Amino acid sequence: MATRHLSMRPAEQGNRERFLDAALSVLFDRGVSGLSVRGVAEAAGASTLSVYARFGGRAGLLDALYERTFDSLRELLEGLPPSSPDGVADLLYLALEYRLFARESPVRYALMFERPVPGFDPDPALRSAVLRTTFTLFIGRVERVCPPGADPRAAAYQLWTAMHGLVGAELMLASRTPLPDWFIPPTAEANEEMYCRGVTAMMTGLGLRNR
């Protein structure tokens, strides 16, 4: 996979992880505005030159951080409990965990699926690889409950867009002054209920059910 961040010998992996841990810390604490070579170098207790040497520049650093955020989502999906006989319940549980992942760090979620960093567009080969790897796990869960003859990839994509839209709207509303007359009360419980109802409705509409 050809990406803009530089390849490394195994012995250099530890230093790379140190920089990425620092970049994640900056992202969580300062948001995208802090994602400069200087800001990450300071957080890692290193020189800006060492960041350039490791990643080739800001674009390479952001590519590597983008990859790390998807690694976190992949690890979440891989760590879900083993599939139970109730595939629909499993899929709803996955959807709820996905929502919690987004809520844990909206700025990380934005880096993954939006364009919060002006001028940054992830390397196409990297973007394709991380999306394919992550969503293969999601497709596997959808495939268990797809009706005969249905395309599980298409069903998974449609379900994910519903999840993404619901959680994206929730995060957007949470970042602004609450509206007193909004039809969803500004509470985590009300948002979770609406999210579950939306995801369940999409699953029903797609014909996803236990066989």
UniProtKB/TrEMBL annotation:
Residues 36-55 bind DNA. Residues 13-73 form the HTH tetR-type domain. PROSITE patterns: HTH_TETR_2 (PS50977). Keywords: DNA-binding, Transcription, Transcription regulation. Transmembrane segments: none annotated. InterPro entries: Homeodomain-like_sf, HTH-type_TetR-like_transc_reg, HTH_TetR, MT1864/Rv1816-like_C, Tet_transcr_reg_TetR-rel_C_sf. One of its GO terms (molecular function) is DNA-binding transcription factor activity. Pfam families: TetR_C_33, TetR_N. The keyword Coiled coil does not apply. This is DNA-binding transcriptional regulator, AcrR family. It comes from Amycolatopsis pretoriensis.
